[in-house]
Every structure is written in structure tokens, then in C-alpha cells.
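Give me C-alpha cells for this 501-residue protein.
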Amino acid sequence: MTKKATFTLHKELSIGEVDPRLYGSFLEHLGRAIYGGIYEPDHPTADEHGFRRDVIDLVQELGVPITRYPGGNFVSGYRWEDGVGEKNQRPRRLELAWRTIETNQFGLNEFVTWCRKVDTEPLMAINLGTAGVDEARQIVEYCNHSAGTFWSDLRRLHGWEKPHGIKYWCLGNEMDGPWQIGHKTAEEYGRLACEAAKAMKWVDPRVELVACGSSGRGMPTFPAWEATVLEHTYDHVDFISLHTYYGNQNGDTRNFLAKSLDMDDFIRSVIATCDYIKAKKRSKKVVQLSFDEWNVWFHSNEADRQIPAWSIAPPQGEDHYTMEDALVVGCMLITLLKHADRVKIACLAQLVNVIAPIMTIQGGAAWRQTIFYPFAQASRFGRGQALDLAMKSAFYEDREFGEVPVAEAVATWDEEAGAVSIFVVNRDIEEDLVLEGDIQNFAGYRVTDQFAYSNPDLKASNSASHPDRVLPRTIMTASVESGKLVVILPPASWNVIRLSR
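Here you go.
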């Protein structure tokens, strides 16, 4: 019997406005993300700043409106002052988070310049591991104050006369993790983050701040960590962070494709915790969510253990993604859109070479990994209002999640453009899925585009030698008749159906 899913497309089923920052990404001084990734002065395509133009083109194609930097675990031991000023005077440091040598040839000002090149906003993380309140206020003064003070004049001396005007800041990274340099208890971090936030906003009241949530849902302190941190910071921060990564270490594809259900529960739990503290404080303020690290990450784990310590920009975290991974990323994107009312920032971790949609060869080509395509399509088409589809789907049984819907789906409605985008993953790895939707509320809309992304080999991937092995294709199996949309979705596929007025 053919599997089936039904839905209702209705304007009244709005979840919330999709914030463009939902399609952000992340760059850390880890592996070849910076050196050999976005920055390679000797590359044939390098511009006057040493930025790879071929990578810039792919980042712009991906559509990334905000980029988190410089970490990640890296930031908890980072002295931002090491990465500004004359390059020949910048110190080399032991980088303890990833056990490499940091040359500091790329730093804060280079990052801001690169952001302007690719039309992305900086989401700057500060060090609250080995640093504190003084460093927090100083970096904001350096970046955002116009002139006439020590730190703002130092920026001008370094060649940046106008202030950078960085609006978004992360108050440290994963401070609940024992692996973190300067690891803290929730009380210790909450007090420090509160004082840092106050000082930063005294320097520049326009900044928006992200407090560290748990570094993963599986942390033994979750969600008590969030509650304690927000007890201290609620009046001074705008977001709390979430991080999660998934993998298929056991080779169980059906379970792997269901991992976004865990992500959904994670988001709901953090929302509930935020709103509990809101009620406890009798506050009218709503703290939003910044899901500023998310992706699939497991392929490179064993290879990373073989890398000798104290290398410079070694090939760390270089997952080579498959069709299967792209489907999970697609499900995670759909989950973020399902929570567009509260998740206002999200950062795919990371952007280039390190668990990334974009890969490069030193001195050679750059290419798109499989996960590039669902992200790029969501970023391009997933704008306007997110719509709940009231989906009723066939399901399969999973040992961890129980009943798993075969169809994972959400829609967006861009009223100004007169366009609807329906994003659907068919989780069934063997059979087509018949999708039927009531779209009477969108009378006069017709199917204008349909994209399907699938491959019979779920382990198929792209590479430098075969960059186009796994590509989405344009098809037209969708039809509209008497207010009903009917479309057949291939097995194990990411799908985008576009309707226009």
C-alpha cells in the first residue's frame, strides 16, 4: 500500500515571522575554516585582503545573513588583541582548545572586512573563559565607539576609522562543558555573564546579547543550567543559545533521519525554561533563542584523533557529507522553521572545510557538499511567515523515538512576493510518498517550481574530483485541481514545492 501524508495550507496557521538570521553560519579558528578556507593569500582567486573569491561566491550563493566568530571552544582562551594591528607583530600562541598553533594572521578586523564582502552580519563571541568584564567592555569600545578613547583610537590607528558597529554578541561559549577553558558552574557563569552584559550595554546600548545555554541536551545539568543562568541574566540578555550535533555512528538510517525529533523536543524544553523564568520574574520581556551551533558531525571524529598536536591549520573536522546527511540537515532546517516564533538566530556549524557545506583544496578548487543544497534552498525560499501544515502522515516505528512521521514538513508564505514554499523530507528510504494538501485558502496559486533532492545511494557524496555527483533536480510531479495539491515524493528525498499567485 502506498504511503500517504495529508496537510492543510492556511494563512491562519501562522507560526511566526521567519527571521532571516535563521540562515546564519559559523566560523571558528578550527582546522582549515579560516586558514585555507576563507583566507588564503597565495590562492589564485585571492583578493587584496587574502580572501578566496571562489569561496566568497559560494557563501553568497548559500545566502548567510549572519556569521558567528571566532568560536566555539577556541574563544574561551582567545586574546582578541593578538589578532589586530600589524601582522608581523602578532604573536603565535598555543591554542589549547584544539591543540594547534594559532598564528593570528586573521583576526577581528579581517573578519569584519570579510563580512562586508559577503554581505553577512558579524555575531561576535567574547571570551568568558580566561577573560572577563574588562575585556568584554574593551572589545565593544574598540569595535563600536566612534573616537576619542584609547580603544576606539587604537582601532583607527589600525586602519579602521569608522566604527564596526557590531550589534550581535555571544557571551562566551559552552561554559557548562568541562572541556571548556575556564569552565564554570551555572552560578559562576550567570554572575559573570550578567556583569559583562551590563558593561557591554553601558558602552553601546544598541548591542544584542546571547547568553550561553547548555552545550547539548544530553548535559546532566540541562535544563537547570538555563534556569540558573537566566535567573542572573534575564534583564540584560536578548537570547539564550542552543547547540546540537547528530551522527549515524550505528549505521541506523531510519533512526538517524528521526533525530530532528530530538531537536524539536530540545527547543520546546528551552522555550519552557525561558518562559518559566519570565513568569517567575513577572517580566514582560521575551527571551528568544539562538540555535548558534547545529549540524551533522561524526564522520571525522576518528581521523581527528590521529592529528599531531601543535600543527598549524590541520584538517580537523572535515566531514565528507552524504545524501543521508543532507536529509537530516533538511529535517533540522524544517524544525527550525517550525519554531520561527522563538528561534530568531541559527548558525549552521560551520561554513568552510570544518563540518561545512563548502570545501576547498589549498591552492585549488572549492566545491559544494551535499548539505549545501537544502540549506541554500531554504535560505532562498524560506521567507515570510512560517506556516504549520497540520500534517497527518504515515509513520514508522523507531527504537528511540517510537512513531516517526514519514513526512517532515513546513511551509512559508511570502505575502509581498505572492509565493508559498513547501519544504518536505520523505523519510521513507524505500517507497514514494503521496502528499495531498488542501490549499483552498490560497485560491489562484499554482505550482511554479518543484525541486527534488535524492540519490539511490544514500552514502553518495560530492568531492573535488566529482563536485556534481549529488545534485537537486527540477521536476514537475505536483498538480493542483479543485483546491487540492497532489505530489509524489521520491524515497529518501528533500523536496521544495513553490506556489505563486
